[in-house]
């Protein structure tokens, strides 16, 4: 769901070489990035990489040790959290348990000079927007997880912030509810047009929801790109490993002049575009490919690009999909591939020999 | 029941705890100056005698004043300390909180003697205010412990959410934190009140001779003729405690139900 229109929007958030220390612990190590207005942006990374810390520096809950955070062009240094144009949806939702749903949602309007009737109307509208029409009088603690989530959203959005910050808002929900809320969040974001910044450690969630994603490791942004680029052209093995599954095969660089010619185990000689080459040249050389980029060829099918022979080593049947571990001829370990199951086509057995089709354009070279 | 011994142990324990208290009203209504079985008839004379005792009324008024002021001050101090210890990090926090709560295990005798020495050498004359001072010292650690638990059970992000929604630190405290720790505040107040009202050592040491309930009761027990009316007083105090407890429990449960919290059973 890459939204190309966001690229030419103005900057909403800008980080310039942001560092954060907790005592001796270097939690943010030089974050430089910009987030566009109206963008659905995600911070993705493993536990402890600093996602929450970075989000909280935007909200103003965490001071930074050095660097600059700008919101809508304004330096946020010395600006307290309660006056920043941001609102937050907390991981625990932080619904005020002693207040009713409507008191929660209207909490931020307490200081607003608008009339009581206008406030009530705004609350009703916010509740309707998140699908909680008629729940206003309920006690906040008598809500399900998904409903609390919605109350938290309504409470934050009612103030029409420039930026909505969401810290793992879906992690406490079960799988079904999570998927439903993902769709609703996307819809909501499009509807209100507010910049959403989502923290998640779930790569699938980030891919589904975001216009752009910053992948973080150990206090640094490893790659910032749209979901498709992240998936197809991860800039390091680490990013590739974190997002989806990637198979790696050792390779040797034969020559490079614009294009790079490599000899990759199991694939033979391939010529790769400069855009497929990642890394500084200091790491070990390998090629990576996603599971769905290798296709088993059945009777009568021919490859449009390259074709190799392989032996089936493992079969995992998933109903709609089958995962195979295939050992390409000449390779010392198998690659995992995924095939959509099609009616009338057999699932291969372990030990079977098969032809596979692939394309050099789907490979990524890490070095 | 798998362990008959444990069961009888529990029953004996409870009997030992409550049977003497049941004796209070029995003898309070017993028509005899001698506190002993067999009972000799029903009378309300002792209650009348108690009621007519003007010294006792002054003692009760003094003790109530001391207990209410002590409970209020201790709870307020407890709120400050608990909040500072739960929410903020500062240098020397461990030792300081440790020292604040140390009087929990410090013999009251020591507090009383030390305070008396200091007050006298400073030339401060003894009054119910010096008793209050001593009681606050003794009660505050309880308040700190109870309130620390209350503050700890508060999700930190609630406070941040209020702040995030535009409230100041002060209004966040008033609108969010205070209502949510109210059951803890109530517990703290009641515990401090109870400790203060029946405290004897400090009341005896730091008092100026003005009648104080605990000291007065103790003094009257020396005169056998006064014992039955003290039994009547005891009965009134028991009823008062039960009433207070019921009220407190009602508010505690209401607080928990209102916030949807889990009832952990304990009063604290
Ligand atoms: N107040 C703090 N004091 C000291 N260290 C902290 C503090 N807050 C966070 N850290 C440390 O900073 C690092 C980053 O924390 P952060 O909460 O940002 O991680 P995260 O990426 O959000 O992880 P998770 O997915 O587990 O929430 C962690 O190693 C954490 O232990
Ligand atoms: Mg986090």
Give a written overview of the molecule:
The complex is a heterodimer of chains A (367) and B (268). Chain A folds into 2 domains: 4-232, Rossmann fold (3-Layer(aba) Sandwich); 245-367, Beta Barrel (OB fold (Dihydrolipoamide Acetyltransferase, E2P)), CATH 2.40.50.140. Chain A is 21% helix and 35% strand. Chain A is built from 8 helices and 21 strands. Chain A has a 6-stranded mixed β-sheet with strand order 6-7-8-3-9-10, sandwiched between helices. Chain A has a 6-stranded mixed β-sheet with strand order 13-12-11-15-21-14, with no helix packed on it. Chain A has a 5-stranded antiparallel β-sheet with strand order 16-20-17-18-19, with no helix packed on it. In chain A, helix 3 crosses helix 4 (145-157). The model of chain A has no long low-confidence stretch (mean pLDDT 91). Chain B has 268 residues and is mostly helical. Chain B is 75% helix and 0% strand. In chain B, helix 7 (156-164) runs antiparallel to helix 8. The relative contact order of chain B is 0.14. Classes of the chains: A alpha+beta (367), B mainly alpha (268). At the A-B interface, strand 6 of A face helix 7 and helix 8 of B. The structure holds adenosine-5'-triphosphate (ATP) and magnesium ion. Adenosine-5'-triphosphate (ATP) is lined by residues 22, 25, 27, 45, 47-53, 201 of chain A.
């Amino acid at each position: 769901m890459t939204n190309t229109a966001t690229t030419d929007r103005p900057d909403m958030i800008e980080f310039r070489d942001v560092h954060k220390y907790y005592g001796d612990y270097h939690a943010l190590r030089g974050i430089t990035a910009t987030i566009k207005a109206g963008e659905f942006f995600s911070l993705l990374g493993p536990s402890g990489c600093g996602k929450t810390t970075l989000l909280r520096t935007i909200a103003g809950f965490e001071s930074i040790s050095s660097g600059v955070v700008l919101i809508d062009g304004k330096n946020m240094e010395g600006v307290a959290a309660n006056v920043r144009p941001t609102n937050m949806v907390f991981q625990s939702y932080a619904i005020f348990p002693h207040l009713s749903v409507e008191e929660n949602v209207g909490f931020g309007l307490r200081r607003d000079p608008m009339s009581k009737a206008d406030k009530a109307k705004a609350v009703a509208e916010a509740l309707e927007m998140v699908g909680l029409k008629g729940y206003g009088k309920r006690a906040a603690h008598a809500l399900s997880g998904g409903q609390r989530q919605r109350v938290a959203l309504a409470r934050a959005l009612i103030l029409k912030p420039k930026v909505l910050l969401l810290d793992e808002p879906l992690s406490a929900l079960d799988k079904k509810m999570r998927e439903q809320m993902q769709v609703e969040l996307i819809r909501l974001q499009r509807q209100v047009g507010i910049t959403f910044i989502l923290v998640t450690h779930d790569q699938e969630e980030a891919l589904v929801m975001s216009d752009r994603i910053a992948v973080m490791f150990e206090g640094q942004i490893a790659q910032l790109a749209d979901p498709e680029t992240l998936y197809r052209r991860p800039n390091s093995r680490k990013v590739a490993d974190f997002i989806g599954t990637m198979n790696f095969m050792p390779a040797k660089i034969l020559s490079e002049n614009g294009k790079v010619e490599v000899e990759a185990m199991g694939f033979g000689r391939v010529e790769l575009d400069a855009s497929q080459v990642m890394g500084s040249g200091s790491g070990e050389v390998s090629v990576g490919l996603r599971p769905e980029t290798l296709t088993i060829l059945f009777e009568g099918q021919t490859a449009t690009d390259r074709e190799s022979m392989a032996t089936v080593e493992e079969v995992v049947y998933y109903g709609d999909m089958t995962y195979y571990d295939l050992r390409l001829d000449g390779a010392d370990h198998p690659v995992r591939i995924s095939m959509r199951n099609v009616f009338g086509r057999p699932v291969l057995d372990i030990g079977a020999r098969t032809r596979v089709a692939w394309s050099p354009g789907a490979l990524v070279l890490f070095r | 029941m798998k362990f008959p011994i444990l069961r009888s142990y529990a029953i004996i324990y409870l009997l030992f705890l409550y049977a003497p208290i049941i004796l209070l009203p029995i003898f309070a209504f017993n028509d005899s100056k001698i506190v002993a079985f067999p009972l000799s008839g029903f009378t309300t004379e002792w209650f009348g005698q108690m009621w007519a005792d003007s010294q006792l009324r002054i003692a009760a008024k003094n003790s109530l004043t001391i207990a209410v002021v002590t409970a209020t001050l201790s709870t307020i101090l407890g709120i400050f300390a608990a909040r500072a210890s739960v929410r903020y990090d500062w240098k020397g926090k461990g030792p300081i909180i440790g020292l604040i709560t140390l009087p929990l295990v410090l013999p009251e005798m020591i507090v009383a003697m030390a305070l008396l020495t200091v007050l006298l050498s400073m030339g401060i004359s003894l009054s119910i205010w010096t008793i209050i001072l001593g009681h606050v010292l003794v009660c505050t650690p309880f308040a700190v412990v109870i309130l620390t638990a209350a503050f700890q059970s508060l999700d930190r992000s609630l406070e941040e959410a209020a702040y995030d929604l535009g409230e100041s630190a002060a209004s966040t405290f008033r609108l969010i934190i205070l209502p949510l720790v109210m059951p803890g505040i109530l517990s703290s107040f009641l515990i401090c009140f109870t400790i203060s009202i029946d405290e004897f050592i400090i009341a005896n040491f730091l008092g100026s001779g003005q009648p104080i309930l605990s000291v007065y009761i103790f003094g009257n027990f020396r005169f056998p003729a006064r014992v039955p009316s003290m039994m009547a007083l005891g009965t009134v105090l028991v009823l008062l405690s039960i009433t207070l407890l019921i009220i407190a429990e009602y508010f505690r449960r209401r607080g928990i139900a209102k916030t949807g919290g889990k009832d952990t059973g304990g009063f604290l």
